[in-house]
Amino acid sequence: MAKFLVTGGAGFIGSHFCDVALQKGHQVVAFDDLSTGLEIFLTEAKKNPNFRLAVGDIREYSQISDVANNFKPDWVIHFAANADVRRGLERPRRDLEYNTIGTWNVLDATQKSGCKNFLFSSTGSVYGEPEVFPTPETCPFPIQTSLYGASKAAGEGLISAYSMGFGMNSVVFRFVSIMGPRYTHGHVFDFAKRLRQDSSTLAILGNGKQLKSYLHIEDLMKGIWLTIESKPTGFNVYNIGHDDALTVDQSVNYICEYLKINPKRTYSGGERGWVGDSPRIQLDTSKLKKLGWSAKHSLEKAVKDTIGYLTENSHLLNRID
Amino acid sequence: MAKFLVTGGAGFIGSHFCDVALQKGHQVVAFDDLSTGLEIFLTEAKKNPNFRLAVGDIREYSQISDVANNFKPDWVIHFAANADVRRGLERPRRDLEYNTIGTWNVLDATQKSGCKNFLFSSTGSVYGEPEVFPTPETCPFPIQTSLYGASKAAGEGLISAYSMGFGMNSVVFRFVSIMGPRYTHGHVFDFAKRLRQDSSTLAILGNGKQLKSYLHIEDLMKGIWLTIESKPTGFNVYNIGHDDALTVDQSVNYICEYLKINPKRTYSGGERGWVGDSPRIQLDTSKLKKLGWSAKHSLEKAVKDTIGYLTENSHLLNRID
Fold first, then answer.
1. Which end of chain B is more exposed for a tag (fewer CB within 10 A), N or C?
2. Residues of chain B found within 8 Å of residue A276, distances taken between Cβ atoms
3. Considering the entire predicted model, what is its pTM?
4. Mind listing the pLDDT tens digit for each residue in A198-252?
5. Are A60 and A195 found together in one domain?
6. What's the rounded Cα separation, in Å, for the pair B211 and B232?
7. How many contacts (CB atoms, under 8 Å) link A and B?
8. Within an 8 Å CB–CB cutoff, is residue B287 touching chain A?
9. Is A68 found in the same domain as A194?
């Protein structure tokens, strides 16, 4: 049994991580400011005596360091982040505060608590607009195109410098968009929300042809646990995502199939959904596959599980997002 | 005539930039907290009515934004930084505060003041321990090995995201170690200081064989002005450094030749001077050369001009560093 401190533990991905950790018999503290995370995602976890929720904000050093110093985790799993990729330019300090300064706070508190093992959820957005597809971890030095990508890349750099400087063991995952139950953020959520109000039309940002890779939450969990259980040393970075990709239009097709509707689609136009949007994301996951990982769920299932969950939990669609 | 706001304008590199800008007939405000910058470096500049020194700290947003909003610069040249590469691990928040958050403050204040042109002094340390020498700007996605390199890489990412998001024009220079008059930081300074106290022995960090590239301040200024005067658009990144490199031992040879001494050398050992030190730095500068740049001064001259300046200004050696 090991002790896991999970930031963003009440969020979509974090709460799944807590559930799996508890199933495996580990002790878990979820740290979350509940600004986007939801306590209902922890309903099962809370029944387990090995689980505790600590409400706190990663932007406040003492809040995360107090929890780390008291709990003395074996691993810190850092999911807490500002994930509002699209609106970075409206609130340009937000990504810096959550994803860079917040990551420094969690990382330094981890190191000072004596914990040597750190896992970080980064993003394929750190590649900006790469020239190589699928994009490997070792692609040419990227040019950041979004404040979100820049802030996550900065977090990665802090983690590798800490690993080198303080002898920590760390794993950085560069995620594609993750889908599945408890998904409460992103284009399927936006579409589900708007289609619920009016299923006759659907306004789509960009030209609908942006090609993006996704992954089912269960396949993400398998990849993360594979690396943790391999007892990594030093600094390690892995892409994770499905080999397949979907255009926004194909994704809408699956949503409409599931909902049995046929809205008229309108497009804002342009190859990017918004300034800084990557028109294409597809990651080379050969490195993770060499550890034995593969995706089991198709992207069709990922989209349909997501829209299915949102349909069954339509109260979530009322959340401001 | 254009208006230049120069952060770190009282420092080694910044004060040279101010001098050249004034010689070219431009209007200059130097912004500096005088924590490591020295007003004596601005003795000539202060005689010029086109020059003003604004004392302030880039870590305080309002201090830099007030100056930017009042002066309305055409260019912001951002040199202010924590350059204490070696002691990053002793004060691990320092690089983040100066080089990442400070850079965000300067960048956002620039953008909000209506200024569209930004130049940033980054470092070859962003390459960590690269596998390719000389290292081009497009080398594989680097792994950060020092908090200094990580904090500067984070600054670069912010600048490219702002350039993309707000239509700014920016130039990032990845510097090697710069030498010449007003040099007050780094190994030649440390050696000069210790040899002045005792010229019979010299303790050297590492094995003396770390191979590093350097550049004379005059060659740096030529490169920087070449890019400014080419009216760059979008985001641009350039390596700058001499094609030659010196081992620490060779550098000591030049210092001893100049001082006409022959100290007994002792070595702390290991291929790195300290944890996170890059054992080898040599940058591919083909991209800048295509603009017409080349280095005129040899590294022997760079080292000897530096030790010559420190000998003539030995009061500087009493500064705590």
1. N
2. 161, 164-165
3. 0.95
4. 999 999 988 999 888 999 999 999 999 999 999 999 999 999 999 999 999 999 9
5. no
6. 32
7. 122
8. no
9. no
